Amino acid sequence: MLEVRGLDARYGDAQALWDVALDVGAAETVCIVGPNGAGKTTLVQTIAGLHRAAAGTITVEGVDVAALPGHRVCDHGVATVPEGRRVFGHMSVRDNLLLGAYRRPARAVHRETEARVYELFPRLKERATQQAGSLSGGEQQMLALGRALMALPRLLLLDEPSLGLAPVIVDEVFDAIAAVNATGVSVLLVEQDVERALSAASRGYLLIEGRIVASGTTTELRESADVRERVLGM
Ligand code: ATP
Question: What atom in ligand 1 is closest to the CA of residue 42?
Fold first, then answer.
């Protein structure tokens, strides 16, 4: 589904990603864990075409999208749920969802997709006409997920979905991610909550100072000395 090789990213003279390589298989959930400032958001944004890669390839279903802008990457089946959710608070829940379906193939079937999003998140249906800004943090996270699903993605990039949410709400959000994954959508999950990320994924990568320093199944990562010392604080 996704194959990243030799990926570098920069902010001016400062290099944020160094020679990153990773894979996400079809219908797989893969996590990226790492401390603050490791480059996790930069990695998501670079894959999504929102930050330009300085070097390397980002191949989605066999097509290198590294030089494409975000809306074109979206056309290859990649949708992003950004850090902090970024829902449009003054617009209704429904209008926020419809924004996710603005590209052509998704637009043609937006009614059917909207109905499926409401099946997955009944609370969004109840609140469809409410302003998104009046939703709780957890509901806004569901809305951000729903908006991404409106684009009919085959790969979902999730940046810190647990950020700022109470643990019981995080459980709900992760249940929703699992439900989305069960429909066959591949998930790349970036999380500071390492335990949650390792529980949700089947494989993962440890990113430190812009480099992948460990990778493996989540069982292997839990046992890795780097993960235990550098992100689990053991
Ligand atoms: P956090 O979990 O705190 O969001 P992160 O792992 O997502 O961290 P990034 O936000 O990707 O890390 O940041 C990686 C590095 O790039 C950091 O050193 C950061 O200071 C730098 N950086 C991020 N955004 C910018 C920017 N717009 N301009 C300059 N440097 C940036």
Answer: 11
Tally the residues of the chain.
Answer: 234
Confidence band (pLDDT; 50, 70, 90) for 227? confident
Distance 133 CA to ligand 1 centre (A): 27
Q: Measured in angstroms, how far is the CA atom of residue 205 from the centroid of ligand 1?
A: 18
* Per-residue model confidence as pLDDT tens digits over 198-226: 999 999 999 999 999 999 999 999 888 77
Over residues 56-81, the pLDDT tens digits come to 999 999 999 999 999 899 999 999 99
The pTM assigned to this predicted structure is 0.91
Distance 11 CA to ligand 1 centre (A): 9
Which residues in the chain are classed under CATH 3.40.50.300? 1-77+154-172+186-234
Q: What's the 46 CA to ligand 1 centre distance in angstroms? A: 12
- Which residues partner with 187 through β-bridges? 29, 156
CB burial string 67-89: b at 16+ within 10 A, e below:
ebeeeebbbbbbbbbbbebebee
* Count of beta carbons in the 10 Å neighbourhood of residue 124: 24
Nearest atom in ligand 1 to the alpha carbon of residue 12 is 29
> Could you tell me which CATH number the domain at 1-77+154-172+186-234 has?
3.40.50.300
Nearest CA to ligand 1 atom 3: 36
